[in-house]
Fold this sequence. Notes:
- This protein is α/β, with parallel strands linked by helices.
- It is 46% helix and 12% strand.
- The chain has a domain of 315 residues: TIM Barrel (Alpha-Beta Barrel), CATH 3.20.20.480.
- The mean pLDDT is 94.
Amino acid sequence: MATSSNKTSRRSGRREKLLQRAAPVAVNPCPPGQLGGQFRPLSEAECRAIYDTALRLLDDLGMGEVPPVLRDQLVAHGARIKAERIQIPAVLVEAAIGAAPSEFVLNGRDSARSITVGGERVHFGTGGAAVQTLDLDTGDYRPSTLRDLYDFTRLQDGLENVSWFTRCCVATDMPDEFLLDVNTVFALLKGTTKPVATSFTVAENIAPIIEMIEIADGAGSFKLNPWIKAHISPVTSPMRYGEDAVEVVLECIRHGIPMSCITAAQSGATAPATLAGFLAQSLAETLASLVMVHVFASGYPMVFSNWPLVIDLRTGSFCGGGGEISVMNAASAQLSNWLGLVSGVASSMTDAKSLDAQYGMEKGISAMAAGLAGGNLIYESAGMTASLLGASFEAFLLDNDMLAHIYRSLRGVEVNNETLGYDAIVEAVTGDGHFLGGAQTMAAMERDYFYPELADRDAPITWSEQGRKDAWSRANERARAGLKKPDPGYLDKAGEAAIRARFDIRLNT
Length: 509
């Protein structure tokens, strides 16, 4: 039977190991920006066939419901009017592709947090417009509020695997569209200095929001450092423009706001149920957005955000997780990169309502597929639940660990004389008979291996002694601790006071 002193010694040893694990690593073994492109669900011939079909759709079928200001500009660049549709010739599409930047900087309010997007670099970030938040106390969903948005913003600010933050929920407690847009950007301004993204309900809301930003950062500052990206869906499937969204695009161009033009067709509903047909139509629609930007501001920074979405054909409900949506977003990333465009796709749009096995399976499969395919900006990849209807504080923390694992997978295996370790193998075999404590092992320990913060790797007895907590419980505790921290201080008191004097800011902190 173990003595009391032996038990105390074992517990002390476990505490020391936990402290060692909690210590920050000297070298991050899986930083964002790893290279993707290893997964190519389409052959070269298949990419070409899908692209050619997209060009044919634009040239023969064309786009409907084209606002006059856009119609006139398209015609001036070689498009044709046929009945009430605008046919866009292949030569115009290819001119837009050729002029589009293959990479650009996505600015943070803190320039040290800016990221370069394009090529095969992979960055995971957020997205969504969840109208419900998974409550930390009750475990039930409730309407999302402005305070939730601010809390999500500052919680993710410390998550290194979330490269940029798109407002993940809609403040349903805002009484009108203007207050929603203004207070959303205020929460982003106050809660993080990463690159951020939001949407603007109408074009008229943009100028006042830029004014608010420059109250904080100085007149003319946004043009020098445009740290907000706009998420816009100027094309409505199938194959037509949306007038309000086109106006938002034009106003963003006037103010120098980079944008993601997002196509979000749904299989079997607003796009074909066949995967190839879906990809062809969705590619045509996103190319129509690119052409729209090109004819007004050639070479403007636009993320080519072609997001294939899937519905359950038995019920008609949106499906955020599964093999079909995973392979289609991977194929979309491949197509965009094949065209040399900065690609945006989505992942981790789980249909699970709680943080359970379904949640982990659907998020892991879709995020890994998008990363391996080389999606430059992968949206929705942290925090989202319930088919994008919900957002969860715990999910942000768990997903941050998941994304680190994916970055580590993308990093792959470095093969050189040092890592092959011939001398280390000889030394271990002829010496102690193991590699524990060896110089090569100690060097690789932090450089090559990721140690998750929330996964449980302890022995069953240790897990039992520590309360048999599951991942959700551990994340809940961590989220509560994070939200108890004070405001990060990114907005100085004088700037905040001036903004509150000018605008109806509803956030109380």
